[in-house]
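1st attempt posting a full record on here, be nice pls
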Amino acid sequence: MAAKNPFSPTFGTSPPVLVGRDEILEDVDDAFETGPTHPDYTVLFVGVRGTGKTAMLNATEDLARKRGWLTVSENASPAGLLARLTQAVQTQLAELETPEPSKRVTGVSGAGFGMTFDHADQPQSAPALRTVLAEVGKRLEDTGTGLVITIDELQSGDIDELREFGAVLQHVTRRELLPIAFAGASLPSIVDTLLSDDEIATFLQRCSRYDIDRIKPEDASEAIVKPIRNRGGGIAEDDLARAVTAAAGYAFMIQLVGFHIWKAASNPADGISADETSTGIAEAEQRIGRLIFAPTWQGLSDVDRRFLLAMARDDDESRLAIVADRLEVDTNYAGVYRHRLIRSGMIRSAGHGKVDFAHHSTRAWLRNEAAYAAISFPDDDPA
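the predicted structure (as tokens):
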């Protein structure tokens, strides 16, 4: 039986080898050591789909657990975030030591989180988030530990709830200096929405922000070859280089390519062949469209989509002026959508007046879409 596939191309899971993020995680760990006065005690990870933002939240939680901290993990949507957070904090406390139904928590003591209780005649009502966080924070403070809250997909959250959450964290963490840390993850659209909101800016705008960008080729190479070797497999340097190029620095694509080249191998222990590597890369490139490009495409405006389809007419980099001509708009107008699409992660700047797709597979995916065949532009050849 072949060894189990070591790669994990599943959203929300951590890769077998987390690469290229050491400096960021060192800063976060230093913040846990320093306390609420450290700027990275509250932090945002911002990046396009597939860059590994959720893996960064997972890694942040791992750092906290190694220090004996409590962790609470939530997604910003659906509505009811504040209630879920309140319940999660209470559940964390209850799981440390299950009290009798007629008891309530009155203290947390010692590094092992020993808890003491006193009896209550009536059941206690669920406290508001600020109240329960303040209570937990004060009790963890004496143990030298804390609580870290992680929230994924911030761009999808209810803005009123996020305003209230920001106000709570601003008070508990920054004003009272209690050991309640925070890490959030979001698509870049947050910069133009939540981070531009005057009422929410007090907290989220003051969080440290790390742009989770594409992974460098040398780090991507390690992320592919190390899991293969750890499972007793092998791959030639030339084939590894092709796999790295196909991944294009996207954390998710690294896992997808690795998974499918391993799957394509008849016996990884004998070495993954050039043909098996090609088969795996082709399968990964076919799947990335459905998993990454399609969800982003669904969230774009009609003009955003026309811009991308106009770019797909070119076999290489596109000149903004030519794209504008195809759209029959001026370059200033086209520049607005250029900015929006860079934020979405679909395209990147390719130099002065030029743009290109952020991932090389995007062009082929677009050309296979029905919308590409249905649309025409002024410079299309009538033949």
